[in-house]
Specification:
By secondary structure, this protein is α+β, with helices and mostly antiparallel strands. It is 33% helix and 15% strand. Strands 1-2-3-5-4 form a 5-stranded antiparallel β-sheet.
Length: 363
Protein backbone atom coordinates (compact mmCIF):
# COMPACT_ATOMS: atom_id res chain seq x y z
CA UNK A 1 0.00 0.00 0.00
CA UNK A 2 1.41 3.38 -1.03
CA UNK A 3 0.76 6.26 1.36
CA UNK A 4 -0.58 9.56 -0.01
CA UNK A 5 2.13 11.46 1.85
CA UNK A 6 4.52 13.44 -0.33
CA UNK A 7 7.23 13.24 2.33
CA UNK A 8 7.49 9.50 1.68
CA UNK A 9 8.70 10.24 -1.86
CA UNK A 10 12.09 11.40 -3.10
CA UNK A 11 12.04 13.00 -6.56
CA UNK A 12 15.11 12.19 -8.62
CA UNK A 13 14.72 13.79 -12.07
CA UNK A 14 12.29 15.00 -14.73
CA UNK A 15 11.32 12.34 -17.27
CA UNK A 16 9.05 14.31 -19.56
CA UNK A 17 6.57 17.12 -19.98
CA UNK A 18 3.23 15.88 -21.23
CA UNK A 19 -0.44 16.69 -21.84
CA UNK A 20 0.43 19.91 -23.62
CA UNK A 21 2.35 21.36 -20.69
CA UNK A 22 -0.39 20.57 -18.18
CA UNK A 23 1.77 17.92 -16.47
CA UNK A 24 5.37 17.01 -15.77
CA UNK A 25 6.48 13.44 -15.02
CA UNK A 26 9.27 12.87 -12.47
CA UNK A 27 11.10 9.70 -11.56
CA UNK A 28 11.19 9.13 -7.85
CA UNK A 29 11.58 6.66 -5.02
CA UNK A 30 8.93 5.57 -2.54
CA UNK A 31 11.17 5.62 0.52
CA UNK A 32 9.34 3.12 2.79
CA UNK A 33 9.79 0.36 0.17
CA UNK A 34 12.79 1.86 -1.66
CA UNK A 35 10.72 1.34 -4.83
CA UNK A 36 11.12 3.34 -8.04
CA UNK A 37 7.98 5.20 -9.07
CA UNK A 38 6.81 7.78 -11.56
CA UNK A 39 5.12 10.90 -10.17
CA UNK A 40 3.00 12.94 -12.54
CA UNK A 41 2.51 16.50 -11.36
CA UNK A 42 -0.57 18.17 -12.86
CA UNK A 43 -1.03 21.93 -12.93
CA UNK A 44 -4.80 21.93 -12.65
CA UNK A 45 -5.39 25.64 -11.94
CA UNK A 46 -9.06 26.53 -12.55
CA UNK A 47 -9.69 24.62 -15.77
CA UNK A 48 -12.61 22.38 -14.80
CA UNK A 49 -12.50 20.48 -18.10
CA UNK A 50 -8.87 19.46 -17.63
CA UNK A 51 -9.55 18.60 -13.99
CA UNK A 52 -12.44 16.38 -15.06
CA UNK A 53 -10.23 14.52 -17.57
CA UNK A 54 -7.55 13.90 -14.96
CA UNK A 55 -10.15 12.63 -12.52
CA UNK A 56 -11.56 10.36 -15.24
CA UNK A 57 -8.10 8.88 -15.82
CA UNK A 58 -7.60 8.13 -12.13
CA UNK A 59 -11.07 6.70 -11.55
CA UNK A 60 -10.77 4.44 -14.58
CA UNK A 61 -7.32 3.19 -13.56
CA UNK A 62 -8.59 2.47 -10.04
CA UNK A 63 -11.43 0.42 -11.48
CA UNK A 64 -9.41 -1.55 -14.04
CA UNK A 65 -6.68 -3.95 -12.97
CA UNK A 66 -4.67 -5.90 -15.53
CA UNK A 67 -0.94 -6.69 -15.91
CA UNK A 68 -0.81 -4.77 -19.20
CA UNK A 69 -2.58 -1.62 -18.00
CA UNK A 70 -0.64 1.04 -16.10
CA UNK A 71 -1.90 0.86 -12.50
CA UNK A 72 -2.75 3.71 -10.18
CA UNK A 73 -0.89 3.62 -6.86
CA UNK A 74 -1.98 6.77 -5.02
CA UNK A 75 -2.44 10.52 -5.40
CA UNK A 76 -2.36 13.67 -3.30
CA UNK A 77 -3.21 17.32 -3.73
CA UNK A 78 -1.37 20.49 -2.82
CA UNK A 79 -3.16 23.72 -3.68
CA UNK A 80 -4.06 23.43 -7.36
CA UNK A 81 -1.41 20.80 -8.04
CA UNK A 82 -2.24 17.12 -8.20
CA UNK A 83 0.42 14.42 -7.82
CA UNK A 84 -0.37 10.95 -9.21
CA UNK A 85 1.93 8.01 -8.45
CA UNK A 86 2.41 5.06 -10.81
CA UNK A 87 5.05 2.35 -11.27
CA UNK A 88 8.13 3.63 -13.09
CA UNK A 89 8.26 2.21 -16.61
CA UNK A 90 11.97 2.83 -16.97
CA UNK A 91 12.37 2.35 -20.72
CA UNK A 92 9.80 5.06 -21.41
CA UNK A 93 7.11 5.06 -24.06
CA UNK A 94 7.31 3.39 -27.45
CA UNK A 95 7.21 6.88 -29.00
CA UNK A 96 10.29 7.91 -27.01
CA UNK A 97 12.10 4.74 -28.07
CA UNK A 98 11.24 5.24 -31.75
CA UNK A 99 12.28 8.89 -31.75
CA UNK A 100 15.58 8.35 -29.98
CA UNK A 101 16.77 4.92 -31.07
CA UNK A 102 14.67 3.33 -33.83
CA UNK A 103 13.67 5.98 -36.37
CA UNK A 104 13.28 3.21 -38.97
CA UNK A 105 10.97 1.16 -36.71
CA UNK A 106 11.38 -1.66 -34.20
CA UNK A 107 12.47 -5.22 -35.09
CA UNK A 108 9.51 -7.38 -36.11
CA UNK A 109 9.73 -9.68 -33.09
CA UNK A 110 9.72 -6.69 -30.75
CA UNK A 111 6.62 -5.40 -32.57
CA UNK A 112 4.96 -8.80 -32.10
CA UNK A 113 5.56 -8.85 -28.34
CA UNK A 114 4.35 -5.27 -27.85
CA UNK A 115 1.27 -5.72 -30.06
CA UNK A 116 0.36 -8.97 -28.28
CA UNK A 117 0.53 -7.33 -24.87
CA UNK A 118 -1.48 -4.31 -25.99
CA UNK A 119 -4.07 -6.71 -27.44
CA UNK A 120 -4.27 -8.43 -24.05
CA UNK A 121 -4.95 -5.03 -22.47
CA UNK A 122 -7.61 -4.23 -25.08
CA UNK A 123 -9.20 -7.67 -24.69
CA UNK A 124 -9.59 -6.95 -20.98
CA UNK A 125 -10.87 -3.40 -21.52
CA UNK A 126 -13.45 -4.54 -24.07
CA UNK A 127 -14.68 -7.28 -21.73
CA UNK A 128 -15.17 -4.56 -19.12
CA UNK A 129 -17.19 -2.60 -21.73
CA UNK A 130 -14.58 0.12 -22.17
CA UNK A 131 -13.26 1.65 -25.39
CA UNK A 132 -9.75 3.07 -25.03
CA UNK A 133 -9.93 5.61 -27.90
CA UNK A 134 -6.25 6.59 -27.72
CA UNK A 135 -4.09 3.59 -28.64
CA UNK A 136 -0.79 5.10 -29.78
CA UNK A 137 2.94 4.69 -29.20
CA UNK A 138 3.14 7.48 -26.61
CA UNK A 139 0.60 5.58 -24.47
CA UNK A 140 2.44 2.24 -24.52
CA UNK A 141 5.13 2.04 -21.83
CA UNK A 142 7.97 -0.48 -21.40
CA UNK A 143 10.37 -1.43 -18.61
CA UNK A 144 13.54 -3.47 -18.21
CA UNK A 145 11.56 -6.45 -16.87
CA UNK A 146 9.94 -6.80 -20.28
CA UNK A 147 6.60 -5.45 -19.06
CA UNK A 148 4.38 -3.65 -21.58
CA UNK A 149 1.62 -1.44 -20.20
CA UNK A 150 -1.10 0.63 -21.85
CA UNK A 151 -1.77 4.10 -20.42
CA UNK A 152 -3.78 7.10 -21.66
CA UNK A 153 -7.06 6.09 -20.03
CA UNK A 154 -8.30 9.65 -19.69
CA UNK A 155 -9.71 9.20 -23.21
CA UNK A 156 -11.45 5.92 -22.36
CA UNK A 157 -15.23 5.68 -22.49
CA UNK A 158 -17.54 3.17 -20.85
CA UNK A 159 -20.26 1.54 -22.91
CA UNK A 160 -22.32 1.16 -19.73
CA UNK A 161 -24.71 4.09 -19.35
CA UNK A 162 -27.08 4.13 -16.36
CA UNK A 163 -26.56 0.41 -15.90
CA UNK A 164 -27.29 -0.53 -19.50
CA UNK A 165 -24.76 -1.54 -22.13
CA UNK A 166 -24.81 0.65 -25.22
CA UNK A 167 -24.21 -0.98 -28.60
CA UNK A 168 -22.54 2.15 -29.98
CA UNK A 169 -21.10 5.42 -28.78
CA UNK A 170 -21.28 8.68 -30.70
CA UNK A 171 -19.14 11.20 -28.82
CA UNK A 172 -15.59 12.15 -29.78
CA UNK A 173 -12.86 11.53 -27.20
CA UNK A 174 -11.63 14.65 -25.41
CA UNK A 175 -9.21 16.62 -27.61
CA UNK A 176 -5.54 16.66 -26.70
CA UNK A 177 -3.58 19.91 -26.82
CA UNK A 178 -2.83 19.71 -30.56
CA UNK A 179 -5.57 17.34 -31.78
CA UNK A 180 -2.84 14.81 -32.59
CA UNK A 181 -5.00 11.93 -31.37
CA UNK A 182 -7.14 12.26 -34.50
CA UNK A 183 -4.42 10.50 -36.50
CA UNK A 184 -5.07 7.23 -34.66
CA UNK A 185 -8.87 7.35 -34.63
CA UNK A 186 -10.97 5.10 -36.82
CA UNK A 187 -12.99 6.38 -39.81
CA UNK A 188 -16.32 5.50 -38.17
CA UNK A 189 -15.41 7.43 -35.03
CA UNK A 190 -14.36 10.47 -37.05
CA UNK A 191 -17.47 10.37 -39.22
CA UNK A 192 -19.76 11.13 -36.24
CA UNK A 193 -22.86 9.73 -37.91
CA UNK A 194 -25.88 7.89 -36.53
CA UNK A 195 -24.14 4.50 -36.83
CA UNK A 196 -21.68 5.48 -34.10
CA UNK A 197 -18.75 3.25 -33.17
CA UNK A 198 -17.88 0.45 -30.77
CA UNK A 199 -14.81 -1.32 -29.42
CA UNK A 200 -13.73 -2.23 -32.97
CA UNK A 201 -12.57 1.38 -33.35
CA UNK A 202 -9.72 0.46 -30.98
CA UNK A 203 -8.68 -2.28 -33.41
CA UNK A 204 -8.26 0.29 -36.19
CA UNK A 205 -6.19 2.48 -33.85
CA UNK A 206 -4.06 -0.57 -33.09
CA UNK A 207 -3.47 -0.88 -36.84
CA UNK A 208 -2.17 2.69 -37.03
CA UNK A 209 -0.01 1.95 -33.97
CA UNK A 210 1.21 -1.23 -35.71
CA UNK A 211 2.51 0.86 -38.65
CA UNK A 212 3.93 3.42 -36.23
CA UNK A 213 5.93 0.70 -34.46
CA UNK A 214 7.18 -0.98 -37.63
CA UNK A 215 7.95 2.17 -39.67
CA UNK A 216 9.06 4.49 -36.87
CA UNK A 217 6.90 7.31 -38.21
CA UNK A 218 3.46 8.54 -37.20
CA UNK A 219 1.04 7.94 -40.09
CA UNK A 220 -0.79 11.05 -41.34
CA UNK A 221 1.47 13.31 -39.25
CA UNK A 222 2.18 15.70 -42.13
CA UNK A 223 -1.32 15.74 -43.59
CA UNK A 224 -3.77 18.59 -42.81
CA UNK A 225 -6.55 17.40 -40.52
CA UNK A 226 -9.32 17.82 -43.07
CA UNK A 227 -7.41 15.86 -45.72
CA UNK A 228 -6.54 13.13 -43.25
CA UNK A 229 -10.22 12.82 -42.33
CA UNK A 230 -11.27 12.66 -46.00
CA UNK A 231 -8.62 10.08 -46.88
CA UNK A 232 -9.56 7.82 -43.96
CA UNK A 233 -13.25 7.94 -44.78
CA UNK A 234 -12.45 7.07 -48.42
CA UNK A 235 -10.56 4.01 -47.25
CA UNK A 236 -6.94 5.19 -47.57
CA UNK A 237 -4.79 3.75 -44.83
CA UNK A 238 -1.16 3.47 -43.79
CA UNK A 239 0.82 0.33 -44.52
CA UNK A 240 3.98 -1.44 -43.43
CA UNK A 241 6.99 -0.31 -45.43
CA UNK A 242 9.50 -2.85 -46.70
CA UNK A 243 10.97 -4.03 -50.00
CA UNK A 244 7.60 -5.39 -51.12
CA UNK A 245 5.52 -2.27 -50.44
CA UNK A 246 8.27 0.30 -50.96
CA UNK A 247 10.49 -0.78 -53.86
CA UNK A 248 13.42 1.24 -55.19
CA UNK A 249 13.71 3.63 -56.89
CA UNK A 250 11.17 6.14 -55.58
CA UNK A 251 11.22 9.88 -55.37
CA UNK A 252 9.80 11.73 -52.35
CA UNK A 253 6.39 12.22 -53.94
CA UNK A 254 6.11 8.53 -54.83
CA UNK A 255 7.08 7.61 -51.30
CA UNK A 256 4.16 9.56 -49.88
CA UNK A 257 1.85 8.00 -52.46
CA UNK A 258 2.96 4.49 -51.49
CA UNK A 259 2.09 5.32 -47.91
CA UNK A 260 -1.44 6.38 -48.86
CA UNK A 261 -1.11 10.14 -48.51
CA UNK A 262 1.66 10.38 -45.90
CA UNK A 263 4.74 8.44 -44.90
CA UNK A 264 5.25 10.36 -41.69
CA UNK A 265 9.00 10.32 -42.17
CA UNK A 266 9.43 14.02 -42.85
CA UNK A 267 10.54 16.06 -45.83
CA UNK A 268 14.27 16.14 -45.12
CA UNK A 269 16.08 14.80 -48.20
CA UNK A 270 18.71 13.14 -46.03
CA UNK A 271 16.08 11.61 -43.73
CA UNK A 272 14.01 10.32 -46.63
CA UNK A 273 17.06 8.83 -48.31
CA UNK A 274 18.22 7.06 -45.15
CA UNK A 275 14.80 5.62 -44.37
CA UNK A 276 14.24 4.67 -48.02
CA UNK A 277 17.35 2.53 -47.88
CA UNK A 278 16.32 0.97 -44.56
CA UNK A 279 12.84 0.06 -45.83
CA UNK A 280 14.08 -1.18 -49.22
CA UNK A 281 16.51 -3.69 -47.74
CA UNK A 282 14.18 -5.26 -45.22
CA UNK A 283 11.41 -7.82 -45.70
CA UNK A 284 8.63 -8.01 -43.15
CA UNK A 285 6.77 -11.30 -42.90
CA UNK A 286 3.59 -11.99 -44.83
CA UNK A 287 1.87 -12.61 -41.48
CA UNK A 288 2.78 -9.09 -40.35
CA UNK A 289 1.34 -7.57 -43.54
CA UNK A 290 -1.81 -9.66 -43.16
CA UNK A 291 -2.24 -8.57 -39.53
CA UNK A 292 -1.91 -4.91 -40.54
CA UNK A 293 -4.48 -5.37 -43.31
CA UNK A 294 -6.92 -7.00 -40.88
CA UNK A 295 -6.55 -4.25 -38.29
CA UNK A 296 -7.07 -1.43 -40.80
CA UNK A 297 -10.19 -2.72 -42.53
CA UNK A 298 -12.42 0.24 -43.42
CA UNK A 299 -15.55 -1.68 -42.37
CA UNK A 300 -15.43 -2.23 -38.58
CA UNK A 301 -17.46 -5.44 -38.92
CA UNK A 302 -14.62 -6.95 -40.98
CA UNK A 303 -12.02 -6.31 -38.28
CA UNK A 304 -11.34 -9.25 -35.95
CA UNK A 305 -11.88 -8.79 -32.23
CA UNK A 306 -8.96 -8.53 -29.80
CA UNK A 307 -9.57 -12.15 -28.74
CA UNK A 308 -9.52 -13.37 -32.35
CA UNK A 309 -6.38 -11.39 -33.15
CA UNK A 310 -4.45 -12.98 -30.29
CA UNK A 311 -4.65 -16.24 -32.25
CA UNK A 312 -3.23 -14.66 -35.41
CA UNK A 313 -0.32 -16.43 -37.09
CA UNK A 314 1.87 -13.35 -36.58
CA UNK A 315 2.08 -13.99 -32.84
CA UNK A 316 3.12 -17.64 -33.25
CA UNK A 317 6.73 -16.49 -33.73
CA UNK A 318 6.96 -15.42 -30.07
CA UNK A 319 8.75 -17.96 -27.88
CA UNK A 320 8.72 -18.09 -24.10
CA UNK A 321 12.42 -17.31 -24.04
CA UNK A 322 12.02 -14.10 -26.08
CA UNK A 323 12.81 -11.08 -23.90
CA UNK A 324 11.73 -7.67 -25.18
CA UNK A 325 14.55 -5.55 -23.63
CA UNK A 326 17.20 -7.72 -25.33
CA UNK A 327 15.53 -7.07 -28.71
CA UNK A 328 15.84 -3.31 -28.23
CA UNK A 329 19.19 -3.38 -26.46
CA UNK A 330 20.25 0.09 -27.59
CA UNK A 331 17.55 1.55 -25.31
CA UNK A 332 18.93 2.41 -21.88
CA UNK A 333 16.76 2.67 -18.76
CA UNK A 334 15.93 6.00 -17.19
CA UNK A 335 18.46 6.86 -14.50
CA UNK A 336 18.18 9.43 -11.72
CA UNK A 337 19.94 12.71 -12.39
CA UNK A 338 21.31 14.04 -9.09
CA UNK A 339 21.99 17.41 -10.73
CA UNK A 340 18.43 17.96 -11.98
CA UNK A 341 17.82 21.42 -10.50
CA UNK A 342 14.08 21.36 -11.21
CA UNK A 343 13.63 18.11 -9.28
CA UNK A 344 15.80 19.37 -6.42
CA UNK A 345 13.85 22.60 -6.12
CA UNK A 346 10.52 20.80 -6.20
CA UNK A 347 11.75 18.30 -3.61
CA UNK A 348 12.70 21.20 -1.36
CA UNK A 349 9.29 22.77 -1.90
CA UNK A 350 7.30 19.62 -1.21
CA UNK A 351 9.27 18.85 1.93
CA UNK A 352 7.60 21.94 3.38
CA UNK A 353 4.12 21.07 2.11
CA UNK A 354 1.16 20.36 4.28
CA UNK A 355 -0.84 17.97 2.15
CA UNK A 356 -4.54 18.65 2.24
CA UNK A 357 -6.50 16.00 4.12
CA UNK A 358 -9.84 16.98 2.68
CA UNK A 359 -10.20 18.20 -0.85
CA UNK A 360 -12.63 18.49 -3.73
CA UNK A 361 -10.55 15.80 -5.45
CA UNK A 362 -12.48 12.82 -4.14
CA UNK A 363 -10.97 9.69 -5.68
Amino acid sequence: MFNPDINDYQLTSIIAECCGGVAVVYSGVYKPYNQNVAIKRYFVDKDKEKASLIQQDILTRKELQHPNILPYLTSFVYGRELYVVSPLMNLGSCRDILDRHFQEGLPELACAIILRDVLLALQYLHKQFYIHRSVRASHVLLDTNGTVRLSGLRSAASMMVRGRRQKQLHSLPPPDHDNANLMWLSPELLEQNLKGYDEQSDIYSLGVFCCELANGAVPFSEVPTTLMFTEKVRGSRPQLLDCSSFPEPLDDGEMKSMYNTDSGVGDSAEGVSRLRAAYARRKLSDAFHHLSDQLLQRDPEKRPSATQLLNHLFFKQIRRTDFLPSLIGRVKPIKPDPDDISALLLQEKISEMEIEKTTEWDF
